[in-house]
Amino acid sequence: MNVLTDNFSAYGDGFLGTLRLTVYASLLALALGFLMASFRVAPVASLRVFGTVWVTVLRNTPLTLLFFAVLLGLPRFGLVLPFQVFAVLALGCYTSAFICEALRAGVNTVPKGQGEAARSLGMTFGQTLSLVVLPQAFRSVIPPVGSTLIALAKNSAIAGAFSVTELLGTYKTLNELGYSIIWTFVWIAVGYLVITLAISALFHVLERTWGVAR
């Protein structure tokens, strides 16, 4: 227990760092995932191609490589931002590809008659998608979206290797101070468990409120 009590501030900083990364990257992933899912089902061929390329490239790129590309590559093109912002971009963009595919799968569960009925009322594609199709699709994809965001929280550990303050990175300091590596990782695991259980509880509430009855 002294590993935690003696280094509570270090664990606290790491926990808050991971929490910030998770929240900001999740918001970015949801926004981009929603946008790319719209592109994937759009009647405009160029938008469908863009959405397909986005998903294909990001889903098949190792996250560590994406971190290198964003944190070390973008500054070479004159884009200099705090490392935490770069980490949010890498995590958010990577996860958005999986959110997009989850939403697209949900769109395929909505009966075609729903969209046809909306169009017969004079609604545009954007109105049909945002007001009729995606709200119904989201109800059926709450569990997979929640699982994807839980994976995002755990993937945020990679950011520690790029000078971003997060929970896993605290082990380096504590190891140098001579604390037991086993108990150091135990308390790190507890921190991640708290975050992932909070996300799981949130999506459980969403599923009970808006999910499709089985």
TrEMBL record:
<feature type="transmembrane region" description="Helical">
    <location>
        <begin position="80"/>
        <end position="100"/>
    </location>
</feature>
<protein>
    <submittedName>
        <fullName>Amino acid ABC transporter permease</fullName>
    </submittedName>
</protein>
<feature type="transmembrane region" description="Helical">
    <location>
        <begin position="49"/>
        <end position="74"/>
    </location>
</feature>
<keyword id="KW-0813">Transport</keyword>
<dbReference type="InterPro" id="IPR035906">
    <property type="entry name" value="MetI-like_sf"/>
</dbReference>
<dbReference type="InterPro" id="IPR010065">
    <property type="entry name" value="AA_ABC_transptr_permease_3TM"/>
</dbReference>
<dbReference type="Pfam" id="PF00528">
    <property type="entry name" value="BPD_transp_1"/>
</dbReference>
<keyword id="KW-1133">Transmembrane helix</keyword>
<keyword id="KW-0029">Amino-acid transport</keyword>
<comment type="similarity">
    <text>Belongs to the binding-protein-dependent transport system permease family. HisMQ subfamily.</text>
</comment>
<dbReference type="InterPro" id="IPR043429">
    <property type="entry name" value="ArtM/GltK/GlnP/TcyL/YhdX-like"/>
</dbReference>
<feature type="transmembrane region" description="Helical">
    <location>
        <begin position="181"/>
        <end position="206"/>
    </location>
</feature>
<keyword id="KW-1003">Cell membrane</keyword>
<feature type="domain" description="ABC transmembrane type-1">
    <location>
        <begin position="15"/>
        <end position="203"/>
    </location>
</feature>
<dbReference type="InterPro" id="IPR000515">
    <property type="entry name" value="MetI-like"/>
</dbReference>
<keyword id="KW-0812">Transmembrane</keyword>
<keyword id="KW-0472">Membrane</keyword>
<feature type="transmembrane region" description="Helical">
    <location>
        <begin position="21"/>
        <end position="42"/>
    </location>
</feature>
